[in-house]
Structure formats: structure tokens, C-alpha cells
Design a protein that fits this description.
Number of helices: 4
Radius of gyration: 14 Å
Order of helices and strands: HEHHEEH
Number of domains: 1
Largest sheet: 3 strands, antiparallel
Strand order of the largest sheet: 1-3-2
Length: about 100
């Protein structure tokens, strides 16, 4: 619920975190790419073009792109999440 604080002990998995993302591209979590594209009144011919338009839309509005990398991330399935700058700062993803 908006404005509510959560206990620091509460477990947050990728599905809980995805509820706070503006948009995401993930092999683990369905970010509803086409629904997000429709929400921003855009169309695209491919998933790659759709994600490019979504990413540009949010980055132009001051959001932050987080790329998740590591040995468990398959190169053909990029992991990118877009958060509002304030949330990214609270998560420690940006400087103070």
C-alpha cells in the first residue's frame, strides 16, 4: 500500500521487487513488454524494438536503468530493470 513502510526483515524476491519497477526485461519475471508498450502509446515490430522504445521513454523521464550481470545470466536473455531514480537511490544503486 502506498506510503506504508515494511519491516527490514521482510523478504523481497524478484517478484516483489518487480512491483516497484517502472519496466523490466527479465528471463525470470514477466515484465509484460507489450502491455508496457501499449501503456506508453507506442508500437513495435519486435520485442527488441519494443524494449528499446520502453527504455528510451523511461530514461527520458529521469528513470534509472539497472543491468543485472553475472554467471547465472544468459547472454541471450538480458536482464534489465528500470526504476524511478528515488527508488534506485534508496536501494543503494545510486550515490546519495
Amino acid at each position: 500500500m502506498p506510503g506504508e513502510t515494511y519491516s527490514r526483515k521482510e523478504a523481497v524476491d524478484e517478484y516483489v521487487l518487480s512491483a516497484h519497477a517502472e519496466a523490466l526485461q527479465s528471463a525470470e519475471v514477466d515484465g509484460d513488454l507489450w502491455g508496457t508498450l501499449e501503456d506508453i502509446d507506442e508500437t513495435a515490430g519486435s520485442e527488441e524494438e519494443a524494449w528499446d522504445k520502453i527504455r528510451a521513454f523511461y530514461l527520458d523521464r529521469g528513470c534509472v536503468l539497472v543491468r543485472v550481470t553475472g554467471p547465472d545470466i544468459h547472454p541471450d536473455e538480458p536482464e534489465e530493470w528500470i526504476f524511478a531514480a528515488g527508488l534506485a537511490r534508496r536501494l543503494g544503486l545510486l550515490g546519495a
